[in-house]
Amino acid sequence: MRHVSVECVVTGSGHNDRAPCRVALVDLHNRVSWSAIILVTPVLDPLTAITGLTTAQIQAKGRPFDVVRDELIGHLGLGMVLVGQKVTNDVGWMQLEAGTQYARTVNLAELFRVWNPHFEHYMYFTLRK
């Protein structure tokens, strides 16, 4: 079981103009077991407060998406369970397939949601400190 986290940069002016720039796997002891920076061009905003990266760092240390994706897949396996908050988004960004590169996902946002009877919908909470 690993937590997978993918961070994205802004690549254009549209709402969905994003591209993954960093991916990491974290083990059950909260240790980063693997991480990589993905080369992205163009970068309109690196979202440094979220990604922890500047445009210069992405350009200097980033590697092509396909190379990083293949390396990530090498750290997974058919028995691997990927855990995260809305982890299906991270899996989608990295173009991974359940049953081929990993076993399944566990969405922590769904596990820890709380029903709000006043508004008649679920409330979701972040895991960030």
Q: How would you classify the helix and strand content by structural class?
A: alpha/beta
Distance between the termini: 22 Å
Tell me the name of the CATH homologous superfamily.
Answer: Ribonuclease H-like superfamily/Ribonuclease H
Q: Overall mean pLDDT score? A: 94
According to CATH, the fold-level topology is: Nucleotidyltransferase, domain 5
State the shape: globular
* Low-pLDDT windows of residues: none
Q: What radius of gyration results from the CA coordinates?
A: 16 Å
Order of helices and strands: EEEHHHEHEHEE
Strand order of the largest sheet: 3-2-1-4-5
Helical proportion? Answer: 10-25%
Main beta sheet: 5 strands, mixed
Could you characterize the architecture of this molecule?
Strands 3-2-1-4-5 form a five-stranded mixed beta sheet. Strands 6-7 form a two-stranded antiparallel sheet. It has a single domain, classed as Ribonuclease H-like superfamily/Ribonuclease H (Nucleotidyltransferase, domain 5), CATH 3.30.420. 25% of the residues lie in helices and 29% in strands. It is of the alpha/beta class and 129 residues long. The chain is built from five helices and seven strands. This is Exonuclease domain-containing protein. One of its GO terms (molecular function) is nucleic acid binding.
